[in-house]
Amino acid sequence: MTEPHPGITPQSDDEARPAAFAEHPVEDILDRLCATVADYPAPGVSFKDLTPVFADAEGLRAVVDAIVEPFVGHFDLIAGIEARGFLLAAAAAYATGTGVLTIRKAGKLPRETYAEEYALEYGAATLEIHTTDLAPGARVLILDDVLATGGTVGAAARLVERCGAHVVGIGVVLELPALGGRAALAGRPVHSLQRVD
Ligand SMILES: O=P(O)(O)OC[C@H]1O[C@H](OP(=O)(O)OP(=O)(O)O)[C@H](O)[C@@H]1O
Ligand SMILES: Nc1ncnc2[nH]cnc12
Questions:
Q1: Ligand 1 atom having least distance to the Cα of 148
Q2: CA-to-CA distance for 40 and 160, rounded, in angstroms?
Q3: Could you tell me the keywords of this UniProt record (predicted)?
Q4: What is the tens place of the pLDDT at every residue in 134-152?
């Protein structure tokens, strides 16, 4: 597990944590349940499929607890990135008593949006956020399932900041260090539960 950002104090007082918190061997669960799919969605890509983790009651609980742990007490809202980030963000927001902010692929949000384009391992895309969904100064934790090139969470962070809010951290289940996402995020605090080849 990565060290939290210097500005983030990990919680050590169990009473300060939400009732849903528990200790789980999260890396064992990921080793057991994460599927790797060769040449998906494009030749040469080794795709990490976390859907079996999310479908497992213990797995879902373990990753949600662990992904927010270093940031508890430091955020007002959790942002989830379409699509698998939604699952993590909604569960984590419920567990920590916060709300969930929706960051979607282009063309899905009905009101005025900010948009950010980005590149990822297998293409390019655009993310959007409603211009009025975030209060200026809000402290936002961004969650997604995988950090690869960092294009996706980087775009999400820029959207949060265009709303005048602050990104206090980025939480991901899996980090693929070979694709350089952490470096591309320019010092933003990143917490990953497992690094994989
Ligand atoms: O660090 P990056 O290189 O940006 O890659 C990571 C992103 O790629 C995957 O999403 P994908 O774009 O495949 O979309 P999906 O969740 O809609 O399937 C994954 O869920 C992350 O959001
Ligand atoms: N190898 C990978 N597995 C899962 N999601 C990804 N997003 C970008 N690269 C990915």
A1: 1
A2: 30
A3: Cytoplasm, Glycosyltransferase, Purine salvage, Transferase
A4: 999 999 999 999 999 999 9
pTM for this entry? 0.89
CA distances from 193 to 52, 63, 85 (A): 16, 8, 14
Q: Which of 162, 153, 158 is nearest to 190 (CA)?
A: 153
Q: How many CB atoms lie within 10 A of CB 54?
A: 17
Q: Do the Cβ atoms of 94 and 77 come closer than 8 Å? A: no
User: Is the distance from the beta carbon of residue 48 to the nearest atom of ligand 1 less than 6 Å?
Assistant: no
Residue 156 near ligand 1, beta carbon < 6 Å: no
Q: How far is the CA of 35 from the centre of ligand 2 (A)?
A: 12
Model confidence over 19-33: pLDDT tens digits?
A: 444 445 899 999 999
Cβ(68)–Cβ(92) under 8 Å? yes
152 to 14, 68, 119, 143: CA distances (angstroms): 33, 19, 8, 11
Measured CA to CA, the distance from residue 90 to residue 165 in angstroms comes to 19
Enumerate residues lining ligand 2, CB below 6 A: 45-48, 120-121, 146, 148, 176
